[in-house]
Amino acid sequence: VRRRLLVGLLGVVLALAVAAVLGDARAQSSFDSTGGTGVTVDGSTVTIGVTIDLLLGGLGETELPEGAQQGADELAAEIESYWNQGFARLASDCLELRLSVKINALPMSAHRLLAIDEDRIASVTTPGHHVVLWGVNNWGNAAPPLTYDPYDEDGYAPPGEDYGSPYEHELYADWSPRLEDARDLAHEFGHLLGLGDDYGEGGEALPGREGTLMADGDLIDQNLVDRLAALARGANPDVPACESWTGTMEVALSKDYLAEQSGLSPQRCKGTWRVDVRFTVLPDDSISGKGDARLASGPDCTFSGAQSGRRAEFDLTGSAAADGLELRFQQTSIEPPGDLVGFQAAMSETFAAERSGDRARATVPIATTEAGPFPVTGSAELSLECVSCG
Amino acid sequence: MPILARLAAVLAVLALGCAACGGGDAGGPPVGQAIEEFDPSPQARPRSLARLSVAAATEPEATREAALERLEAEDPDVRLAALHALGLTLEGDDSDALAAFLDSERPGERLLAASAVLSVGDARGVPVLIDALDDDRLLPIRAPSLPAWEQARFALLAFTGEDFGLRGAGDLPAAAATKPDWERWWTEAAPSFEVVRAPARFSR
């Protein structure tokens, strides 16, 4: 009886042992990865939400330092503020990005290792939470910051290459006091948004990226916003997609001050303007944009002493169709006051631009007699390029 | 019953032990393997560095021992990984083992050793770090690589309490320009130097 009892108990204990091991194995492989970075859309406002579990306490420690959560909240606010200032500056009628960051301070013991395959391991806590190790030892020594995507085959994003994995998986990162200020934190955080480095293996900024946040500088520019919008759209197709156009217009004008109208001998002023325009085609096909005009030459007048505007700003409105754009300028300012060469004449009528793929051209009408009592003649050629189409 | 109790206890311990080791060991390679398989190529480096980082965080003592055992490895990549891992897990009395690398011909070995020994208060690291302030060779301890002067900048600012304009230095020429001031300071400060750790977030 004792032998049977012994065998029975041994069987029970063995079964428990096997169950414990299998249960643990199942736990290791059943992590339901959802991504630590998410995207919600409300009209033109796109909020990128990031949740981070920040493992603290020094390497190997199991307790949180005093005030850890407050420190984590401050860290989140610092990062959020840095990115949101850039987003607000570059917001358009089409799209305004916003960042929402939540950082949970947790002791090192809160994470566990998850085997992705025989070569790759992930440090995980809760589905939907990226894991960031505050990697400084008790002496203050720390490794350089690192972001690692354990779900990618090699976890490597070449410089200049973005990646969508933060929106699908929980990434692992090493942060430390080597991130000295808000700029450093914002840069490193950019990797949890899916942005790759904009500098190369030798530390040099990639062409055109000098001075920007993911390279060697601190600027959040339109390029970063556009890349983030594309990443966000990959995670949530409701992120509005708007065409962005830029272009230039060369304007050559001549304004005649006729004797019979002015009571003076005939006079004439000539000049050329160079105009930069940028506009967005909103999801409802309406157009909204701005223009900035500078007097490129002139005014070349048959009289002297009169003041003329040298810089003008205007709004651009209209609508878009597959084969063309209908546009209208509305001048909002000219500095200094005065319009000797008749720039206003190029701002007076709705006109059509013929579209061919990502380019469009238009001959802008000159309102020869409608810009005041003195007729204006000349030409205005507008050339446009879509910088984010398709 | 004593036999039964002993057997049950052993099996229970085995079962619980395996369940617990799911955190530290399951899925992850042994620490020594993470050091020996360190691959500094750009494509493999993030994974290699992450393995070392996770090992140091979860098994600091095992990582330290594995690193100490591999400091003399023939493969320079293994030595670099061992120095990197030891820098994160060292104890105060590891300084002499690291000091052997302060005159290494390899800048990565030299600077990782110098940073580590200085972190525990060993002044022998300071002149090595000052000397690297105008060194733009690349260290494969970050992806993309870290210029040598940046590693020197971090350690000098973190452990000396001095600045000489180095904190504001964002590139090699600016860092190199501070080198004469650091050298002058060290000439006077060396005999009485004591480590001064910069205040940092989340410090105890």
Write the layout of secondary structure elements.
The complex is a heterodimer of chains A (390) and B (204).
Chain A: H1 2-29, E1 37-42, E2 45-56, H2 68-89, E3 96-107, E4 112-115, E5 121-124, E6 130-134, E7 146-148, E8 172-175, H3 182-192, H4 222-235, E9 243-257, H5 259-262, E10 267-281, E11 286-301, E12 311-320, E13 324-335, E14 351-356, E15 359-363, E16 376-386
Parallel strand pairs in A: 2-3, 2-6, 6-8
Antiparallel strand pairs in A: 1-2, 4-5, 7-8, 9-10, 9-16, 10-11, 11-12, 12-13, 13-14, 14-15, 15-16
Helix pairs in contact in A: 2-3
Chain B: H1 2-24, H2 31-36, H3 45-58, H4 60-69, H5 76-89, H6 95-99, H7 107-119, H8 125-131, E1 138-139, E2 146-147, H9 148-159, H10 172-177, H11 179-189
Write up what this structure looks like:
The complex is a heterodimer of chains A (about 400) and B (about 200). Chain A is α+β, with helices and mostly antiparallel strands. In chain A, about 20% of the residues lie in helices and about 35% in strands. Chain A is elongated, with a radius of gyration of 31 Å. The model of chain A is unreliable at about 20-30 (pLDDT under 50). Chain B is mostly helical. Chain B is built from eleven helices and two strands, in the order ααααααααββααα. Chain B has a two-stranded antiparallel sheet. Chain B is globular. Residues about 1-25 of chain B have low confidence and may be disordered. The chains are: A alpha+beta (about 400), B mainly alpha (about 200).
Give the chain pair forming the largest contact, with residue counts: A-B, 71 and 70 residues
How much of the polypeptide of chain B forms β-strand, as a percent range?
under 5%
The computed structural class of chain A is alpha+beta
Give the overall shape of chain A, derived from the CA principal axes.
Answer: elongated
Query: Count of helical segments of chain B?
Result: 11
Strand order of the largest sheet of chain B: 1-2
End-to-end gap of chain B: 50 Å
The order of strands across the largest sheet of chain A is 9-10-11-12-13-14-15-16
- Low-confidence regions of chain B: 1-27
Classification by helices and strands of chain B: mainly alpha
Run of helices and strands of chain B: HHHHHHHHEEHHH
Total strands of chain A: 16
Indicate the multimeric state.
heterodimer
Roughly how much helix do the residues of chain A carry, as a percent range?
10-25%
- Write down the overall mean pLDDT of chain B: 87
Q: How many E strands of chain B?
A: 2
